Amino acid sequence: MAIFNKLRNLDAYPKVNEDFYRRTLSGGLVTIFSSILIGFLFLSELRLYLYSGTETQLVVDTSRGERLRVNFDVTFPLLRCSLIAVDTMDISGEQHYDIRHDILKKRLDNHGNVIASRQDGVGAPKIEKPLQRHGGRLDHNETYCGSCYGAEVADDDCCNSCEEVREAYRKKGWGLSNPELIDQCTREGYFNQIKEEEGEGCNINGFVDVSKVAGNFHFAAGKSLHHNQDLISDLLDVQLGNHNITHKINKLSFGEEFPGVVNPLDGAKWTHHTSSGIYQYFIKVVPTVYTDLTGNKIQSNQFSVTEHFRDDNNVHPKPPPGVYFIYDFSPIKVIYTEGKVSFLHFLTNICAIIGGVFTVAGIIDSFIYHGQRAIKKKIDLGKHR
């Protein structure tokens, strides 16, 4: 009992006898208002606790020798798939022409509906077994090695597709004067494919892997046909250099996407009204690192862009018409770090809100109560006089 008495003496919150307090209308109104205010502030604190904030930091980008993936999804409603080549080049001298891996082309009709979808390349063989380099047809279990028709660099070089033959000729600086006689082109139906796609559009999507230095990638129209343009024009009635490069950029991003990123070219459209020219996008890429709450880092990029159309009617020789994305990198890196209020901080704020609101409410109620009593006392004194 002595221990309980000592604890009773330590009670910092002595209870007020019911005879010494009264419930009033003003007190009820203040209690309701303060409860609503506490509820609103509680929800506000809960939202801050549940949803993370982001801290931004700018640093000098010192990274070197990295690679960058450029993701794209572009639609050319008036340009057939067989005439579009994807090229990349940069200031370090790295160049890649007519890239085919990791790229998917979709043939579109004049209403924008997909006719066919294929990994870049031309169709399957349509005639007998492929012709071997030694002159015979491919035998059972024999490894295929097609002829490069005089463009071989080494004795063991093989050209197993029409594209590889054309590339071998390009490296030699030769024109492919009789492509209809090339076994690979005939089997793959290269020219039939171009004829079949007349009046169609093309959606091309995928990615290219480039060095993290200034450079460009572009969609060149008809570039692969220029080495033998006279023959192609006669065979296919293709107006080389007069391709309509009207396009829509469905998606364009540099690196992996992160929460909150805005790619300014997503959904951008441009309509070609002249007979020739190239459309250029000048892009400033800003390296970005996003760190989420779990500590996972996303290495990505943001970018800004300006646009320009160049009419090449009076330029000789004319560059292949197309859409060019010319990019450079900012020396500043942006670092985003997700942060979150700790649970202890959340509890502290809630306790402070409850205590603060009820304290202020008690003071207001006390002022109201004593004011009412003072007014009543004056009224009573007036009556007695």
From TrEMBL:
Entry keywords, A to Z: Membrane, Transmembrane, Transmembrane helix
InterPro entries linked to this entry: Erv, Erv_C, Erv_N
Positions of transmembrane segments: 20-43, 343-368
Ranges where the Endoplasmic reticulum vesicle transporter N-terminal domain occurs: 7-96
Domain Endoplasmic reticulum vesicle transporter C-terminal: 148-365
Record's subcellular location: Membrane
CC per GO annotation: COPII-coated ER to Golgi transport vesicle; endoplasmic reticulum; membrane
The organism's place on the tree of life at top rank: Eukaryota
PANTHER family documented for this protein: ENDOPLASMIC RETICULUM-GOLGI INTERMEDIATE COMPARTMENT PROTEIN, ENDOPLASMIC RETICULUM-GOLGI INTERMEDIATE COMPARTMENT PROTEIN 3-LIKE
This protein's name: Endoplasmic reticulum vesicle transporter C-terminal domain-containing protein
